Every structure is written in C-alpha cells, then in structure tokens.
Amino acid sequence: MAIVPIVKFGAEVLDRRAVELTEFSEDLDTIAHDMIETMYAAPGVGLAAPQIGLGIRLMVIDITVGEDPEKVVVMANPVMVEQEGEQHEEEGCLSVPGYSGVVSRPEWVKVRGQDLKGNEITLEGTGLLARAFCHEIDHLGEEEERKDAKTREGARRNPVRLLALRLCESLRLCVGRFL
Ligand SMILES: [Zn+2]
C-alpha cells in the first residue's frame, strides 16, 4: 500500500473519458488500496482512478474518512441508475485545489457497478454520500463513449473541466480559468 501523488487540473488523464474495467486481477486490489490510502492522506471523501493518473473506471469513497472501515466503497464501472431530490452544498475537488463552490446534486442516488472481483453491486446513498457518488462518476466522464469525442462539442465534455465548472457555478469569477 502506498500514498501516491494526486494528479492536478491540467493533466491530460483528467481530460479523457476513463475506460471500462474488464479484468479484475490482484493488481486492481493494489490500485484500489493505494487510492484509499491516498484519499485518507489528502484527506478527502472520494477519489477516482484518473486522479492518480490511471484512466480506468474505478472509484473509492469513504464519507467517514477512515473512521468506519465498513463505510468504504470501492466500485468499478459505476453507472448512475436512479436519482431523486436535490441538494445544494459546498463541494471541492482534490484535483482542483483552491476552488470550491455550491454544486447542485440529487439528494439520493442509486449506483450500479462491480466490486474488485467483478461481481455486480448496487449501492444507494443520500446527502454527502450521494454527492460523492456524483462527483467521482463525473471524474470518469460520460457513461457511454461519445462518437463526437474529437469534435469541439465533445471536447467541452472533458470530465475535469465540467467538474471545475460545476464548482464555479456560483462563482462566476473563476469560470474563465477552466473554459
Ligand atoms: Zn474531484
């Protein structure tokens, strides 16, 4: 297990749609554990694989930041399947240090994905957990590969830029910085 550097805004890996995981080897366990340790050290409540330089659809979340080991979520290939309600809370991102803003998110979400062995899992979250699911899924980019990814419209769908702009929704000043 190791704490690894967190990739910051501007790094190419954060701009790309992360790819689906199809192999569930022991290497994936190591990656997930490094991500958890790195998230705790930051400290943060969630981390997506592109934030440690890996363009794969893997995320870790722990809204207790290590207080309750049973609350750790590790999910590969997450897909948002249901959402309800609305919340508006302050949000930041370990890859966009120095910026935070009030972001609109659903109050409750249901997410389907796979565990580290490739078994399908479905999880639900409200409040902060719902926000963390939404934020980390944002980092992975759209669930479906877009055919127009190379066009200007597609490029605007760059995951980390969309996230940064979300953080700036209520803070017009920094919009120019992330466009
Ligand atoms: Zn983030």
Concise synopsis of the structure shown:
It is built from five helices and seven strands, in the order αβββββββαααα. The chain is an alpha+beta fold and 179 residues long. The longest helix is centred in the N-terminal third of the chain and has 16 residues.
Number of helices: 5
Reported CATH architecture: Alpha-Beta Complex
The percentage of residues in β strands lies in 25-35%
Instruction: Supply the helix-strand structural class.
Output: alpha+beta
User: Helix amount, in percent?
Assistant: 25-40%
What is the succession of H and E elements?
HEEEEEEEHHHH
Q: Report strand order across the widest sheet.
A: 1-2-3-6-7
Q: Would you give an account of this structure?
A:
There is one protein chain. This protein has one domain (12-178): Peptide Deformylase (Alpha-Beta Complex), CATH 3.90.45.10. The radius of gyration is 15 Å and the shape is globular. The strands form 2 sheets. Strands 1-2-3-6-7 form a 5-stranded antiparallel β-sheet, sandwiched between helices. A two-stranded antiparallel ribbon has the order 4-5. It has 5 helices and 7 strands. The protein is an alpha+beta fold and 179 residues long. Zinc ion is lined by residues 93-95, 135, 139, 163.
